[in-house]
Specification:
The complex is a heterodimer of chains A (234) and B (763). Chain A is an alpha/beta fold. Helices cover 28% and strands 28% of the residues of chain A. The radius of gyration of chain A is 17 Å and the shape is globular. Chain B is of the alpha+beta class. Chain B has four domains: 186 residues, no CATH class; 190 residues, no CATH class; 222 residues, no CATH class; 114 residues, no CATH class. In chain B, 53% of the residues lie in helices and 18% in strands. In chain B, the strands form two sheets. Chain B has a six-stranded mixed barrel with strand order 2-3-8-5-7-6. A six-stranded mixed barrel of chain B has the order 12-13-17-14-16-15. In chain B, helix 2 runs antiparallel to helix 6, helix 2 packs across helix 8 and helix 18 runs antiparallel to helix 19. The chains are: A alpha/beta (234), B alpha+beta (763). Chains A and B meet through helix 1 and helix 2 of A and helix 1, helix 7 and helix 10 of B.
């Protein structure tokens, strides 16, 4: 057993698309430390989202082992994975995926049902700058604000692992920077943050950058001098 | 827990946001349950009200007929297990203060059996002067309590003040003679008078009502009366007679309807629910993925969606049950009370209504679960992907060669789409078949009843007026009637057929009616009758196991001599399963032929001598058509509901198929296909489904109408169903029209397809 918070050993994931077999991940090995801010870069079809889904317990590898916080989640049953998602992982999606019929506050408090959280929804909303929008519905918010709701919902769980799939993909540069600040803040508070993106600019602020190509790790670079978030733009 | 509260809020807001979709489910369940509980509560209500009425007002168990006296009553009362016996003298009278109105007068001394239900006025008292009149007849003829009516009963004139408006349990349905099929309350009714109104010489009884202690003893008492009591010609179970039998027949008919129609409606309602829920869940696919990603368990997510179904089905079923029992059932009961006179008639329910309600809710939740299960079982990552059509190229390979290559693009597209989505297509076909079946049933029932009326009143009875000959008519009077009007005549005899140890109450139609009253063969064609035996109706023969060549043993009521007569043929009669023989055959048995009816092919003014009444065939037709009007209301409701259900199913299937094709239609749009062209592809498939449904629905509808008329009608009826070409056309056009309109409506969505969003690919 290593001291890494996240550890992937020879992880492969194969899909059948129509009648064609497709290898989304091919014998991937990764180690990530607790509190690291990791950016995973790569072109479309490289396997970034698949990797994120496996780490998030939303998908399982076809072969290989996945450890998170010392537990082999690749051997988890469906019930254990549900429990894992509920208590260990926070998700942030490119298109926010918040419930359109719940208010901002209700969306954040939704996780109270599945997670033994001690966080206060109002405080979390305040931390992401949405306190005054608490009673609004998602369609009354801008894209950046909706993504902040998504972050607030993820943070509300106090997750050990925060997984972000193109969190700034639908946002302009300025709003994206605001979102990245929030994510960096989480990493600074010892949450492991993994961001999957096409956007190479984001890599400059990460502690570590992993390049994926054709389902394999092409490069794994530790960023010794991450840029300040305000310095990046796209 | 707070979170659970959030999901509940989500549910309520989703319902509000998707109100039209949810209201569809609610309405469908409401309609399905309403039809079921309505028919059921009406049917149960008829049964319970009838039973209560019979018990409260002490309907007799047996009727003994003959010419009898108080001594006969006493003798019958002394038979073991007889509670009580009461005599009455029944005779027909014309109401001279009104035009062409008849009353059956019943002279009684006591009224403990078949007690009057007094709607208005006084209770019966033998010492009281006056007449207790059938309330329906009074109402139809605007006769009020206190009015005086003039009567003529076989030359005896009465002028009586109405002292009571009544119903009696042995007159729930009353027809004045066997030629009438349905009660015509405006033309005839019944009334009761004290026996004291009669001269001493006429204080005898034509029937004695017998109340027994236990129904199980009826047979023994019947035998005892027949064997030991003088003056009794025949003994008949009251519940086998027209009043009770036709009322029970109506309830039994309802039992068939309730199964078929409620079953169809609830099945279609559930189909609507499945399709609607499938649509809603599919739309919520991403949210299901998010909930999974957030750590909600599969069971909790499934329960969240099942709670939609539970919430809606609870409201829909509760409203359906309430409206069905309080309103729809009442509508049916009110329709029945046009014909049947039952005191305190009301709707009723039993456990089956609640069970069906619970089963409907359970089935709705279960179907919802089955729909949701398909999604929640998938890994969260899979659900969050854009749904792409699944294609198994091997199964579609055959569509790439041969004839298929010559088909248009849209035809090939649709064939492949149908092959890829067999379940959805079959569900669509099934739903439209249900709509089609209901339409065919609705129109088919009307066609069949019309066909029956035509058969009875145009094909079989081929005259304008029937002279009902008086029992007292002399030979001279009859000869004069022959000479003045017609030689076509008949006589109907009440008989009992001895079959094994059982005595069956039947009749023999002795005909000398020529072409005025035709006897029909198996194919409903006129048949010629031979003079060397008896004909029995095919249905009677099938029911009792008779065949041509067998001998049938019978005796005439009032005559203990049994005859064994050879069956020389089978005939068919739509409303009376009985025996037929020619006058010559009848006379060859040693009887003197005295007709009780003469058939005339022209108009008649007044009532000739020796004739009790003149019956116009048109007045019978009017009565039947009145009944058709009532039926029409029910059929219109059936057709409206059928069209509504059909439209919703087609709409739901359309939306579902649209959602599945969103990605493909986006591609077509990007490629430059016009909205109209894409719309046509979509409409084409729905019309194919409608066509398939019509091909299946027409024979299925025919089968169900056939079943209804075979199972629901009483044993005495025998007629084939009629489905006219117009019915086939109307049902086909109706189904096609609904499909076309709904499909055209849905194609408006093509213009709204967001090409970029729909085509956003997964990595």
């Amino acid at each position: 057993m290593s001291n890494n918070f996240v550890e992937l050993k020879n992880v492969s994931r194969e899909y059948l698309i129509g009648e064609q077999e497709y290898k989304a991940l091919n014998k991937v090995n990764i180690n990530i430390n607790r509190g690291e801010f990791v950016v995973i870069l790569g072109p479309s079809g490289a396997g970034k989202s698949t990797l994120l889904n496996i780490l998030g317990g939303m998908d399982s590898p076809t072969s290989g082992e996945v450890f998170v916080d010392g537990h082999e989640i690749s051997k988890y049953s469906a019930k254990q994975l549900t429990n894992y998602r509920a208590n260990k992982v926070g998700f942030i999606f490119q298109f926010y995926n918040i419930m359109p019929t719940l208010t901002v506050e209700e969306n954040v408090r939704l996780v109270e049902d599945v997670s033994e959280t001690d966080k206060d929804a109002s405080a979390v909303l305040k931390s992401v700058g949405l306190a005054k929008h608490a009673r609004k519905f998602p369609n009354e918010l801008s894209g950046g604000e909706q993504q902040r709701v998504s972050i607030a919902r993820a943070v509300m769980k106090n997750p050990a692992l925060l997984l972000c799939d193109e969190p700034t993909g639908a946002l302009d540069s300025k709003t994206g920077v605001e979102v990245l600040k929030l994510l960096r803040q989480q990493a600074d508070e010892n949450t492991t943050v993994i961001v999957v993106t096409h956007n190479a600019q984001i890599a400059e602020i990460a502690d570590r950058v992993i390049y994926l190509k054709n389902g394999q790790i092409e490069r794994d670079i530790v960023n010794k001098k991450p840029k300040a978030i305000d310095e990046v733009s796209w | 827990m707070a979170g659970r509260n959030m999901l509940r809020r989500k549910m309520l807001r989703d319902v509000r946001k998707n109100f039209s979709q949810f209201i569809t489910i609610l309405l469908m369940l409401l309609v399905g349950t309403l039809v079921f509980s309505g028919i059921k509560s009406y049917m149960i209500g008829m049964q319970v009200s009838g039973d209560e009425y019979y018990a409260t007002n002490n309907l007799q168990d047996l009727d003994a007929f003959g010419k009898m006296s108080d001594a006969t009553v006493d003798k019958i009362e002394k038979i073991e297990h007889v509670n009580r016996a009461e005599g009455k003298l029944s005779t027909m009278a014309s109401v001279t203060s009104l035009s062409e109105r008849d009353l059956q007068l019943n002279f009684i001394k006591t009224n403990e059996i078949s007690r009057m239900h007094v709607v208005e006025g006084e209770n019966f008292d033998v010492e009281k002067d006056g007449i207790w009149l059938d309330e329906y007849f009074a109402r139809e003829n605007k006769i009020a309590l206190g009015d005086t009516i003039e009567l003529d009963a076989n030359g005896m004139a009465f002028s009586k003040k109405v002292v009571g408006l009544i119903y009696t349990p042995d007159h729930v349905a009353y027809v004045k003679d066997e030629t009438e099929i349905f009660p015509a309350h405006d033309k005839y009714g019944y009334a009761y008078l004290s026996q004291n109104e009669l001269p001493e010489t006429m204080r005898f009884y034509s029937s004695i009502m017998v109340d027994v202690d236990d129904e199980a003893n009826r047979n023994a008492i019947k035998t005892a009366i027949t064997d030991t009591v003088d003056g009794v010609v025949s003994v008949v179970f009251t519940k086998d007679q027209y009043s009770a039998a036709s009322y029970q027949g109506e309830i039994d008919e309802g039992k068939t309807y309730v199964g078929i129609f409620s079953g169809l409606f609830i099945a279609i309602a559930l189909l609507c629910t499945v399709t609607t829920m499938a649509r809603i869940v599919r739309k919520d696919r991403t949210q299901i993925g998010v909930m999974k990603a957030l750590g909600f368990s599969d069971a909790r997510i499934a329960w969240h969606y099942i709670s939609y179904a539970l919430f809606l089905s609870l409201i829909g079923v509760a409203l359906g049950l309430a409206l069905g029992i309080a309103f729809f059932g009442k509508v049916f009961i009110d329709m029945e009370t046009v014909f049947f006179e039952v005191a305190n008639i009301h709707t009723g329910i039993d456990a089956s209504v609640w069970v069906m309600g619970v089963l409907t809710i359970a089935a709705t939740c279960l179907t919802c679960y089955l729909v949701v299960r398909g999604y929640v079982r998938q890994p969260a990552a899979e659900i969050l992907r854009v749904e792409r059509p699944k294609v198994k190229s091997r199964s579609l390979r055959f569509t790439t060669s041969g004839l298929f290559r010559k088909l248009s693009f849209s035809a090939r597209w649709n064939i492949r789409d149908i092959l890829r989505n067999k379940a959805r297509t079959i569900t669509g076909v099934f739903g439209v078949v249900g709509c089609m079946v209901l339409l065919v049933c609705g129109f088919g029932i009307l066609d069949t009843v019309n066909g029956y009326i035509d058969l009875e009143l145009s094909e079989i009875n081929n005259y304008k007026n029937r002279l009902n000959i008086s029992e007292e008519a002399t030979s001279e009077q009859i000869e004069k009637l022959y000479a003045d009007y017609s030689h076509d005549s008949s006589k109907t005899l009440g008989i009992e057929v001895k079959k094994d140890d059982e005595l069956l109450v039947k009749s023999i139609f002795v005909t000398d009616a020529g072409d005025s009253v035709r006897t029909m063969d198996k194919k409903w064609q006129k048949m010629e009758l031979a003079d060397d035996g008896v004909y029995v109706t095919q249905k009677f023969a099938e029911l009792e196991g008779y065949a041509v060549g067998d001998e049938i043993e019978w005796h005439i009521f009032g005559d203990s001599t049994y005859y064994r007569t050879k069956i020389i043929g089978l005939n068919r009669d739509p409303q009376n399963q009985a025996l037929t023989m020619t006058r010559k055959m009848y006379e060859s048995l040693g009887f003197e032929y005295m007709p009780d009816a003469i058939y005339v092919d022209h108009e008649i003014e007044g009532t000739p001598e020796g004739v009790d009444s003149v019956q116009e065939i048109d007045s019978i037709r009017e009565g039947m058509e009145q009944m058709l009007d009532t039926m029409m209301t029910m059929v219109v409701m059936l057709i409206v509901f059928a069209a509504l259900l059909g439209a919703i199913i087609i709409y739901n299937m359309g939306v579902l198929s649209f959602a599945e094709k969103d990605y493909q239609f986006s591609t077509l749009k990007v490629l430059g296909f016009s909205d109209q062209k894409i719309g046509r592809i979509f409409i084409q498939q729905n019309l194919w489904i409608a066509t398939a449904a019509i091909i299946v629905g027409l024979p299925a509808g025919y089968g169900i109408v056939d079943y209804i008329f075979r199972e629901a009608i009483e044993e005495s009826y025998d007629f084939s169903i009629t489905i006219t070409l117009l019915t086939c056309l109307l049902s086909t056009i109706g189904t096609f029209f609904v499909s076309l309109v709904v499909s055209a409506w849905l194609t408006r969505r093509v213009a709204k397809i967001d090409m970029v969003k729909s085509l956003k690919a997964n990595e």
